[in-house]
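Researcher: Before we compare anything, I want clean individual predictions. No alignment, no superposition, just each chain on its own. First chain goes here; please echo the sequence and then give the structure tokens.
Model: Echoing the first chain and its structure:
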Amino acid sequence: MTRVWQWNRPVTVREVLEDLQQERSIAYTTVMTVMDNLHQKGWVRREVDGRAYRYTAVSTRAAYSAALMNEAWAQSDNPAAALVAFFGMMSSAQREALTDAIRIVGPTLPEAPAPLPETPAPQPEGAREEAGGRADEGTAGGPPADAGEAASESEGDGR
């Protein structure tokens, strides 16, 4: 696939073979089998050209890489943690590429949902709203006015 992606044009088994043979010894039938397997898996399409086939990549290397990353991320039980770990592994050049990519796709991304309203800080026990009452009833920092009466009544019946 690397050769097909690099050339970005239809290639024959013979072309791939000759290129690979510059680096190592490899048989024509091996390259032909690999190209056929790639075709069967849907990675390349082929067209007859005389007695041979010309193979063309179905997608770009970038699209393939993106699909791999998306698949790995989708398998995570904690996608946010996976992204944090992934970003932590990035080199400065990769972080710069990420920044560039966000700048490019940013205008096309859907708008982020509105942030959730902030949850108010927990109130002291005496400041919470009582059924039908207000939180500011009673003395500052103390229980609401009717809380003492309820306590007195419960003490009288042994609770």
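Researcher: Okay. Second chain, same rules.
Model: Second chain and its structure:
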Amino acid sequence: MSYPQLPHEVARLQALVDLQILDTPPEARFDAITSAAQDYFNSSSALISLVAEDRQWFKSKQGLDAKETPRNISFCTYAIAEEFYLLVPDALADDRFANNPLVKGEPYIRAYAGVILHSSGGYEIGTLCVLFAKARTFSEEDIAMLQHFGKLVERELHGK
């Protein structure tokens, strides 16, 4: 499967490496945010997903056992190519994702909402996202709360 790549991909990946967070142990400060997001949205999963060169790695995860997935099947890869966030109300009705193995099989993603996480230099390093087992729509309030949770993650990432 092909996926979007940003024109500044090399600098984006360097910004992610510079954070020195990939493959680090879970941390309560991030888990508190994904737990709150999962509760707020009543989602099947909530993740802090960092999009590396060939994989998306989960710094924090609720409701999902996997530590990472290949980038070429990652919803978050599409999200970081958007301006602010990505909403997928029904993955089966979306040509980008209808045949995705994460939709057709475990974890059976049916709806997705992800907000972009930025490095201190403004590069798109990943997402705070919520996954759903059923199709759903997203309100303006949902988008605002997703962005709020994303800002909390960025604050922790940048130590502010």
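Researcher: What stands out in the second chain?
Model: The CA atoms of residues 43 and 105 lie 17 Å apart. Additionally, The first helix runs from residue 9 to 19.
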